[in-house]
Amino acid sequence: MEDPPSLNDKSNSYVEFIKAVYRTVDRPVTWLREKVVVPNRPDNVYYHQKFRRVPTIDECYTDDRVCHFEAQQQFNRDKKVDGEIVQLVRQRYKECLIAEQPDHTRKCAKLQADFLKVSENFCMKYADLGPLNNVKDAYMKQKHRMLWERRHGKVGTGMKNQDAL
Amino acid sequence: MAAFSLLRAFASKVNLPKNAINQGILVLRSNPNNALQVVRQMSEHRTMHIKPSRWSWNRFKDFMHFYIMLGAIPAALVITYINLFIGPARLAEIPEGYVPEAHEYFPHPITRWLAKHVHKSYQQEYELMCHHIYEIEYEQKLRQAENRIKQKMAEKQDTQAYYYQPVSSRYERSIRDNAQADLEISGSV
Q1: Is some CB atom of chain B closer than 8 A to the CB atom of A63?
Q2: Touching check for A40 and chain B: CB below 8 Å?
Q3: What is the spatial distance between Cα A36 and Cα A41, in angstroms, rounded to a whole number?
Q4: Which PANTHER family match (chain A) (predicted)?
């Protein structure tokens, strides 16, 4: 399938006229910005903040409230990061869907599988815990899930008979 | 002929000064500004211009001028100047061995200024909270230990602790010292 048409391909007088009209407004503004405004600005930089890892909730003593607080803050930050990761994967999948519209089932299958896996992992860790971010609740959810999987097998394969346990 | 008697009947009711004198009715006269004025038989021709109040409208204009001239326009000018001539910061890698300050984690110049001069940084608030929790936890643990001891004493009933009332003489000493200071200052008790 060929690329969609772009303004940089072979052009005609109409396209040239439109481009010239655009340039009458764009060229002075761009010149002003590049030659006058930007060189006179102070060159400030900003950085991406990196946080040290602190002990997680399973490494904290039960009566160490400061450790709990630090683990809770780390959990909040991790939840935000993981949420952004899910958003990125979702955005890639959506863009593929829109771009490949009639053939999307075939062409975006891998991205769909990736998105479903990533969102499944996110929900395994963070979902169904209520409106507040409680790191102890998330830890207990993991414990209950592991117990359930030990008794019944992987999540999604159904509960075994109570008598047989 | 009958018309004249009708006219005479009507004349007594027309809004003229001559009818007002004897009957005490109000005489209303219209002025060029299209408002009716009450005319009393006095000597001056100056009258009060009765019209609806323009107080709300004037107050509205005052507020509009205040908030636009002193609020919106200066703010817009300052923000435009900052965005054009200072501009947002560019993202860069943190150099080796350098610990950036809190305000260097934000791109926009106004946010940077606020982070530098107004707000407490994330690290500062975090550490304040950690210390607060540490102190509260310490006091909680002391109280819990005290309660456990009291419970054991109540269970076993094997100590003489219930005879002992803790006494401190802090207050008596303070009263004595204050009395002495008063004596020295004033010369009498």
Answers
A1: yes
A2: yes
A3: 9
A4: NADH DEHYDROGENASE [UBIQUINONE] 1 BETA SUBCOMPLEX SUBUNIT 10 (PTHR13094:SF1), NADH-UBIQUINONE OXIDOREDUCTASE PDSW SUBUNIT (PTHR13094)
CA dist A77 → A80, A132, B51, B154 (Å): 5, 14, 66, 48
pLDDT of B22 above 60: no
What residue spans define the domains of chain A?
Answer: 13-46, 57-152
pLDDT above 80 (res A135): yes
Q: Quick check: A52 contacting B, CB < 8 Å?
A: no
User: What are the chain A neighbours of B104 within 8 Å (beta carbons)?
Assistant: 45-47
Partner-chain contact B92 A46, CB within 8 Å = yes
The model's pLDDT over B132-180, given as tens digits with 9 standing for 90+, comes to: 999 999 999 999 999 999 899 889 988 877 777 888 999 999 999 999 9
Mean of the per-residue pLDDT values of chain B: 86
pTM for this structure?
A: 0.70
Q: Chain A: nearest CA to B93, how far in angstroms?
A: 6
Domain boundaries, chain B: 55-92+99-119, 122-157
For A112-131, the pLDDT digits (tens) are 999 999 999 999 999 999 88
